[in-house]
Amino acid sequence: MTSLAFTSSAQVLSISSAYGVNLTGNERTWDCPTFDVSKLEREIKRVEDLGLKAVRLPISFRYHLKSDPDFGKKLRRLLRSCAKVKIELILANFDHQLSEEHLEEGTFQIIDQWMAVLDILPKNTKGVFLEIVNEPTISPSSWYKASMSILSEIRKRNNEISIIVGASNANSMFELSRMKPYPFKNLIYTFHYYEPYIFTHQGTSWTGDQHATVGIPYPYDEEMMPVMNTKVKGTSGEVNFRDYDKTGNIVAVEDKISQIFNWAKTHDVIIWCTEYGVTENADRESRINYLNDVSQILRKYSIPSFLWEWEGNFGVKEIMNLSNK
Description:
The protein starts with a strand and ends with a strand. It is α/β, with parallel strands linked by helices and 325 residues long. It contains twelve helices and ten strands. The strands form two sheets. The chain has an eight-stranded parallel beta barrel with strand order 2-3-4-5-6-7-8-9, surrounded by five helices. The chain has a two-stranded antiparallel sheet with strand order 1-10. It has helices at 37-49, 61-67, 71-84, 103-120, 140-157, 168-171, 173-176, 197-200, 236-242, 244-247, 250-267, 284-300; strands at residues 2-5, 20-22, 54-59, 88-93, 128-131, 162-166, 187-193, 270-276, 305-307, 321-324. The chain folds into two domains: 2-196 and 250-324, Glycosidases (TIM Barrel); 209-247, no CATH class.
């Protein structure tokens, strides 16, 4: 049995309830990433050793298809490696640049990218999943129009491969709960879970002043709460900070996740949570508490889940010690 022991605490991150993990890096075009198959294979072997079943691979197809003439060969090698260790692989389309201003053009570009990927994939695509767009931010109506076109074109080429699709507002579970399922078979609906953001995104520069307060514990503990950062005043973070006693606990986690579970049950569709996590700006014990609580609730509702992320500013790799017992 594989277990994870933390060096500085008796607490353990119980990721056995997670289905998989995100291996990030190939979506970060600002770093000019190289599609390093050897490194991916090493990390996938570690993931398999942990007992996880799948890897979600964020990729900028826009970048790699153009910049790397060997991308197709490398991707096929990775697929063979995943099949060898029986790890399922989600190919998630990041950096898609879909916008309201260039909706039609952007949709066509995404379709072209997926057609190129389908040309690369082998005939047997068992264990491979296509996530058409990560975290669309256009309006719900525009996203439905664009996603219908993307799904239709993929299905014309491959009627069997599993496709993952989420809602607008960055794969919001709340937007998903308002959606009507698509008229296609073999779809998996996804949502991302980072609630409450005031905890999971504390101190993250890219989310603005609303998350400037750091030292926020999980679960909520009045005696451990920091003083609100003055930068937060006047932003939505002020209200979220005030209400954290109601949102920073497992009861609130279950309340939200149960709602999307009920939506999926009503429509008889499959749902996955392809991202959940917390920034390393939070203290280690709080991170463990939070990830364990979210994992527990997702497991309770039989929702396959993917930690965000293996390495990076939300990374779980550096806070755990792998030991085989």
